[in-house]
Amino acid sequence: MNRNTVQVSEERRSQLKAARAALAESGASPRKISLESRMTIISWIYLWGYTSSSIIQERLGKSSGGYGNKLAAQGWLTATKTESGIPRFFYTLAEMGLQEAERFAPELYRYPESDPYRVNQKLLRHNLLAQKITVDAIRTGLVSSFETERMFAQDGDKSGVKRPDVVLVTTNNLRIGIEVELSAKWSRDLDEFVLGIVRALETTTYSRFTVASDSPAIINRYKKAMAPGARLDIWVKNPRNHWVVDKAISVPDWLILKVDFQLIG
User: Fold this and answer.
1) CA 128 to CA 52: how far, in whole Å?
2) Cβ proximity of 235 and 197 under 8 Å
3) Would you say 46 and 109 are in contact if contact means Cβ atoms under 8 Å apart?
4) How would you class 69 by CB atoms within 10 Å of its CB: exposed for 0-12, middle for 13-18, buried for 19 or more?
5) What is the pLDDT of residues 99-134, one digit of tens each?
6) Residue 249 in 3-state DSSP?
7) The pLDDT of residue 153
8) What is the bridge-based pairing of β-strands 166-170 and 143-148?
9) Which of the two residues, 91 and 161, has the higher pLDDT score?
10) How many Å apart are CA 13 and CA 18, to the nearest integer?
11) CA within 20 to 30 Å of 77's CA: 6, 30, 161, 217, which one?
């Protein structure tokens, strides 16, 4: 056994000792902790559709990965290789996991991801980043709950009102719509994005919005588009069924005060 192996073993023993001490202090049995961890992940995937190993690890506060593979081996989850290889797998609910989720769910939702090949892998990174933002917000202690897109999609879309990727509900009951933007919008798409947020904030449903991106240029583009007085075109379809600008209005001064911009590292 080499020196590095000894160091790793010592670190692992230290981690196990700390974990046992935490269990003893909490009064919870290892079995109870195991059941709660499993239900946390099953419920999470039920609401999001799928997740990754790193999200599972962060959601449970574990120091190492592998829990997703463990639940898959036990028949609770299905592990499917990604087309890009990053991450290597995504996890959906197997039949046993779906039954468990529905048994304890306060409200039932459709779960098309029972067939993992129905997952649109082009949106994989986008949706996993939305999950990452949600996990980080929960860990701050400032967010008491969240609503995924499938949770509020059942109410149907309101015409022209932006439906966010996820809604974070803070401990003082503020509802923050989160929009993850990984590619730049232009022309009508950009105008309708900004107008959709304006209309969403004009309702009583949302308190604030956050636009999150891994691109500084995209963040700056949205800041300019939402600046007070910026031109905002209203688009309609003409008799030939082509989109044309009907009129131009100005972005309201209050919008920039209710939108935050988050650069994802």
Assistant:
1) 7
2) no
3) yes
4) middle
5) 999 999 999 999 999 999 999 999 999 999 999 999
6) strand
7) 74
8) antiparallel
9) 91
10) 9
11) 30
Cα–Cα distance measured from residue 228 to residue 254, given in angstroms and rounded to the nearest whole number: 7
**Which residue is associated with the tokens 């690890």?**
57
> Torsion angle of alpha carbons 53, 57, 63, 66, nearest 10°?
-40
Residues above pLDDT 90, as percent of the chain: 79
Longest dimension (CA), the chain: 78
Q: Is the pLDDT of residue 187 over 80?
A: yes
Instruction: Give the HSE-up count for residue 39: Cα atoms under 13 Å, Cβ half-sphere.
Output: 11
Task: Count Cβ neighbours within 10 Å for each residue of 7-24 and write b for 16 or more, e otherwise.
Answer: eeeeeeeeeeeeeeeeee
pLDDT in tens, 224-246: 999 999 999 999 999 999 999 99
Decide: residue 130, CB within 10 A, 0-12 exposed, 13-18 middle, 19+ buried. Answer: buried
Measured between alpha carbons, how far apart are the two ends of the chain, in Å?
Answer: 38
- The Cα–Cα gap between 28 and 85 comes to 38
pLDDT in tens, 65-97: 899 999 999 999 999 999 999 999 999 999 999
Structure tokens at 185: 């919008």
Q: Is 214 helix (H, G, I), strand (E, B) or coil?
A: coil
Rg of the chain on CA atoms, in Å: 22
CB neighbours of 48 closer than 8 A, spacing ≥ 6? 127, 131, 148
The answer to whether 130 and 150 have CB atoms below 8 angstroms apart is no
